[in-house]
Amino acid sequence: MDNWQRCFYSLLGMIFVLTSIFLFLLIKRHRGHGYFLSKFSAFTRIRFDHLEQRRQTYCPADKTCQCHPSNSASNIQPNFLCPHRSRTLYMSFAGAAMIVGGVRTTEWRGSMHQLHNQSNDTFDALFLTDPAQCFYLQDPNYQWQGISYYRQLVETYMKLYQRVVLIGASLGGSMVCMCADLATVSIAFNPILDPILLGLPWRIMGAYCPATQARIIRERVHMTMEKIKMQDTMHNCVLHIHWSQLSAADQRQAHRVVGGGKQKQPRQSECLTSVADFDINNQAMSSPTGVYVWFHQCTRHALAMFLKRSNLLIPLLKHHLQVATDDKSENISFTEERNSSIIEIPMLEEKSNDLRVPLL
């Protein structure tokens, strides 16, 4: 009996060790260990250098530029004396990169290059990720000062560049909407403007967001939209929001802004310039100021990926950035008030949140 018990316990030990090794290799291969580190970091606010080195990636158009320290990934300090700076800066806020498919540090880079492929206009790019996966609410010191940190970053770069373009999807789109009143052009795909609507499991196991911070996001987005709509900004600003009209997850977020839904939400009419079905030929696609909501006939939360596969993403971006690439329109003041239109969003049955994030 003793021999049998020893063999049994030895077998259990071997199974435990082999299972642990298998899980470690699986995690490392498919998710990197960024997911678990980001969860631990979000709950404990402990800083991990492995994640912080992925927070910011600065890519100047001039490859010979040596004005920025190579170790500045975790906290970039712009060099105000850099002579190699382009006229345009893209600031990309990555979505749930550490949750879906591992850590991606240069989301949207391919689309940026494709957008300027046939143009002589060069651009610098700053790619941002959220190490703690908490809607960019935590700053590099892991305090809940992320909104102030990133808004100050956008404001600083607006003083260094003629044009700053913000772009992001999902939780990256959330930060775009919170900073849009500081940039020139802001483009948000499927932004999550109210994390509470995602449900408690996603807010804990997915992108972490306490209820108090979710309220701050809602208030900051509302304030940003209102400032743009009322032209209470230092320069012309435009915010384009794209949602999937047939996605239940996007419907819940959209109803928070455009009104309607099961909760009969009021429409934030004082914040919106127009709400319309997506039309590539709509003149509002190239407006220099205002807040525009566009609905697409798409069932997925990953709208940007859907548009890219349908060869619609680059034409869409070209229309949005026409003002940002046309010198003649730089100082045009937009005074025409467009009539806001209300469109009906068909109600779907409540299904899974379908939060698959595009990595472009």
TrEMBL record:
InterPro entries: AB_hydrolase_fold
Domain of life assignment: Eukaryota
SUPFAM superfamilies: alpha/beta-Hydrolases
Name of protein: Uncharacterized protein
Keywords assigned: Membrane, Transmembrane, Transmembrane helix
Membrane-crossing segments per the record: 6-27
Keyword Membrane in annotation: yes
